[in-house]
Write a structure and sequence with these properties.
The structure holds two protein chains of two kinds. By secondary structure, chain A is α/β, with parallel strands linked by helices. Chain A is built from nine helices and ten strands. In chain B, about 35% of the residues are buried. Classes of the chains: A alpha/beta, B mainly alpha.
């Protein structure tokens, strides 16, 4: 994917006037090469998640443009809904619907959004469940799954609709280290399978492994942007060095 | 103390107290005469069941509509629902029934054969105001992240409501709705004031015919308990059953 972002602004105003308006993205520009995986890193509150929500078609920016492979993102809700059906998003937590089993969670978008019959949908999810070692958990409810299993099912639900690209918003931030490992491993496999994705993460070691390019988002704009290896090893910006030192030695 | 023993003890104390109170009354019980009217009790009891069930369905509908309006972005819809809920919850059902039948229904020239319909309608409006708050709580209990997830997989707003929000909200509100049904059963006794021949109305008629007050009204208490105790049990069971899925 070629991602081109121009002058992206996201400003939140509280209609009741209880809080001051906040500018979360402040004229952000970013142009990537033709890459498979973009990783967004940066301090909390810097605007990474806000940016990802706009890229995923969940929020509309105040102003500015975003284009994937030359196709601009729509701005009206009806068209955005269509766009969201071609991509997929995984959040930090609570992705799954708690009243449905893992299997029902997987089938829901296939049947109700993508028009598959139930047998077709079952056939579609069988092999991926097997490959990611989740078959044994298919008929459990989210409350019976571990945090890592929940996230892997959520990623699977995103995958089986065969999206053109995947957005992952800190998918391991709510997990303990052991479960983080199993989720990262799964994302690593996506990379090997050729899935295109944009990932927000704090796992710098992992970012280096899967990213083609890394963008450092700070104070609502891009503080630095480079191919993964350059970014981590040759970066001289003191803000980024400080951030890297903190996160790598945390 | 084991649970069964505790309950047995409480019930025994209650029975002893009741027996002592009644014994001190020096009553001339006249159960034989009242027994002849047993058909009226049975008919009234079934009428109460039917009225309660009908009102439960209609009041659920009113409650859902009002709850959605309470959460609406449109100030006017909000105001309508808020005034409805506060007005109804703040006034006695007795007054609402009298106004509903003798003023509104009369003004609309509703025939006296329609009193059951009007009765169910007023009772449903009454109960619906309580239901509205129950449903609003259920809708509020669904985290925003669920709506995000629904949007992210491409569901339309209507699909989100149907497939994600309502199934979860229903599980959350079911125990409270079952509890509301208990109130509804007892509140339906007030329909007797507009001459609806439900359980209480018939018991009162038996009393007028036999002058056996307690013999007429004690079966009434037993009859209502026979309805409300299982409903309370159902409500508690539902609460346990659906506690699981908070995660």
């Amino acid at each position: 994917m070629n991602l081109a972002i121009n002058g992206l602004v996201q400003r939140f105003t509280d209609p009741d006037g209880r809080r001051p308006p906040a500018t979360v993205l402040d004229g952000l520009n970013l142009t990537t090469g033709d890459i498979q995986a973009l990783v967004l890193v940066g301090p909390s509150g810097g605007g990474k998640s806000t940016l990802l929500r706009i890229l995923a078609g969940l929020d509309v920016s105040t102003s500015g443009t975003v284009a994937f492979d030359g196709v601009p993102l729509p701005r009206d809700e009806k068209a955005l809904q269509g766009y969201r059906r071609t991509v997929a998003t995984v959040f930090q937590a609570y992705n799954l619907f708690p009243h449905l089993t893992a299997m029902q969670n997987l089938l829901l978008p296939l049947v109700h959004v993508h028009g598959l019959t139930e047998p077709e949908a079952l056939e579609r999810v069988r092999e991926p469940l097997e490959r990611f070692g989740l078959t044994a958990h298919a008929y459990k409810r989210p409350a019976e799954l571990s945090g890592g299993q929940k996230q892997r099912i959520a990623i699977l639900r995103a995958l089986v609709v065969q999206p053109s690209r995947l957005f992952l918003d800190e998918p391991t931030s709510a997990l303990d280290p052991e479960m983080t490992g199993e989720v990262l491993e799964m994302i690593g496999e996506l990379k090997a399978l050729g899935t295109q994705f944009v990932l927000v993460t704090h796992e710098m070691g992992f970012a280096r492994k899967v990213a083609d390019e890394i963008a450092f988002i700070v104070d609502g704009s891009v503080g630095a942007h480079a191919p993964a290896a350059d970014f981590l090893d040759r970066c001289t910006d003191p803000r980024i060095r400080l951030f890297l030192d903190r996160t790598l030695h945390a | 103390m084991p649970r069964w023993l505790a309950y047995t003890l409480v019930l025994a104390l209650l029975a002893a107290g009741g027996a002592w109170a009644f014994a001190s009354l020096d009553m001339n019980w006249n159960w034989g005469l009242v027994w002849e009217y047993r058909a009226a009790f049975v008919r009234g009891w079934w009428m109460t069941v039917a009225l309660s069930l009908a009102s439960l369905l209609t009041s659920s509908l009113f409650g859902i509509i009002a709850a959605v309006m309470l959460r609406s972005r449109f100030t006017f819809a909000q105001a309508v629902a808020r005034v409805y809920v506060e007005l109804i919850r703040g006034t006695p059902l007795l007054v609402q029934l009298l106004i509903g039948w003798y003023v509104i229904a009369a003004a609309l020239r509703v025939g006296s054969d329609q009193r059951y319909l009007v009765g169910v309608l007023v009772l449903s409006l009454f109960s619906g105001a309580y239901m509205a708050e129950i449903f609003r709580g259920g809708l509020d209990a669904i985290p925003r992240t669920q709506l995000d997830s629904a949007r992210a997989i491409g569901l339309t707003p209507w699909q989100t409501l149907r497939l994600v929000v309502l199934p979860q909200a229903v599980r959350i509100v079911l125990p409270a709705v079952a509890g509301q049904l208990v109130s509804l059963v007892k509140d339906s006794s007030l329909l007797s004031v507009i001459s609806i021949a439900e359980f209480t109305f018939n018991a009162r008629n038996v009393n007028s015919a036999t002058y056996s007050t307690l013999e007429s009204y004690l079966p009434l208490a037993v009859g209502y308990l026979a309805l409300t105790l299982p409903l309370s049990a159902l409500s508690r069971w539902l609460e346990r059953r659906f506690r699981y899925e908070a995660a």
